[in-house]
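Lab intake sheet, docking and co-folding queue.

SAMPLE TYPE: protein with bound small molecule
LIGAND NAME: magnesium ion
LIGAND FORMAT: SMILES
REQUESTED OUTPUT: full 3D complex as structure tokens
PRIORITY: normal
SUBMITTED BY: R.K., bench team

The fields below were copied directly from the construct record.
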Amino acid sequence: MEYFLQQLINGVTLGAIYGLIAIGYTMVYGIIGMINFAHGEIFMIGAFISFIAFLLLGALGITFVPLALLLVLLLAMVFTSVYGWTVERLAYRPLRGSFRLAPLISAIGMSIFLQNYVQVLQGARVKPLQPVVTGGFQMFKGDGFAVSFSYLQIVIILVTVVLMASFSLLIGRTALGRAQRACEQDRVMTALLGIDVDRTISTTFVMGAALAAVAGLMFMLYYGVIDFYIGFLAGIKAFTAAVLGGIGSLPGAMLGGLLIGLIETFWSAYFSIEYKDVAAYSILVLVLIFRPTGLLGKPEIEKV
Amino acid sequence: MTLLSISGVHTFYGRIEALRGVDLEIRPGEIVTLIGANGAGKSTLLMTVCGHPRAAKGSIRFDGGDITRLPTHAIIRRGIAHAPEGRRIFPRMTVLENLQMGATTGAPQQFDDDLARVFVIFPILQQRKDQRGGTLSGGEQQMLAIGRALMARPRLLLLDEPSLGLAPLVVKQIFSVIREINERQSMTVFLVEQNAYHALKLAHRGYVMVNGRITLHGTGAELLANSDVRAAYLEGGQ
Ligand SMILES: Nc1ncnc2c1ncn2[C@@H]1O[C@H](COP(=O)(O)OP(=O)(O)OP(=O)(O)O)[C@@H](O)[C@H]1O
Ligand SMILES: [Mg+2]
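RESULT FIELD (auto-filled):
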């Protein structure tokens, strides 16, 4: 029981990180119908920017942890957003209205480019970071096994919940969110109502990148090491999460992320750690066979 | 003094030339109608005014400024609203959200007034305001599309077959709404209609389009009396 509870906590933490990345996939897919394969790399860049920001703040003598975390969070979101914006502007926008596969190929190219770019700038070695957030609770010690809930896990889960809640409000209630949903449904009509569609699409990339940056920061804090390759696996899993939840659906991405995190954790805990990646994909295959639209992506009954 | 002037406009879809040199003028405060057979290019002309598709040749001026090369959203922001062919309401948004989308270019402090006005014109929309657009009946969607265009308080309102799919009584009502907003708010209206009789009765002036060209124009009464127009668009069409 204690072991199970511990895995649950670990799984939810991992799921939070995947969920944050998955939102970027699902939003971009929703608005331009394209899988942004470079999104995993945006997450990786978010982790590197966080890493650099920590070193800088350390050098400046800002060591009060909550303040440092907040500053790193903001810096990472801002700078990673610039990358997200630039990728869209350079690699996707010029291809809009071109044949369907063009932006997809461009995205794969962008993904490879960004990996190499970081490898050249930062080196191929893994970067270790001193633990920043330490300590935690111990709960019901029994059978020689204690369930621990670290402060870091609490921070990760809390920040994710707050971000996802504010994000859902933003999409559901504001004029910007309405414009984004309008673009998803009918881009021509959206322009006919006076909305700059290109700018709305850019904003979507920026928002996805900002969330990926938060995920990158958390990943770095949680695992303590990063390298230029982390975007690949995390990206594929987050993408899987988005498809699992129903691509295009925001709650779907959150749910999918959570599920992938849980599946991966429980699989490693009870079966074999080697096949943890296979487990997630097997579930995906099953879902796609029996529910091709994903868990929450139900096709609407519409008259158009 | 003209509000909209279209001169020598050609528009292509790939190699198909849908507009073959169109000249047309609309003065402030007018209701102008454009009639023509299916495939004549009427919808294309309205969309070309909005820059989608873009005119390949010729020029379009609105309120003295050249809008031929502006992006669509910038054209709309000059004060044009378009209720296009096929309604194009947002199916996964509520009626209220659809109307809010229409108010994008309007002043926020006018929103409540404009919303109330649309609800007076189409009370059914108020009853359905939290329902998703895609679940409205065809006629209700048509009303929503017109209401959404009105929310922008445009200086020029483009309407593409607003009577399509509506019951005769509702058609009557829509036409009287058009007259009313034209008279009360001096909103200029450019109306494309299959229902040539009603449209010509309502409009100050009309144009007839055949195969991407304007072949006739005159006052509504003149066109109603014209024997070619009667033969082609009115016989049995009342
Ligand atoms: N998106 C498009 N791609 C290719 N051809 C098009 C497209 N839209 C319209 N056309 C062609 O352009 C011509 C004019 O079409 P348009 O829709 O403007 O006609 P219309 O006068 O509005 O007809 P209707 O009364 O049937 O609505 C037609 O021959 C049509 O086939
Ligand atoms: Mg038409």
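REVIEWER NOTE: The pocket of adenosine-5'-triphosphate (ligand 1) is lined by residues B 13, 16, 18, 36, 38-44, 85 (CB under 6 Å).
SIGN-OFF: pending second check by T.M.
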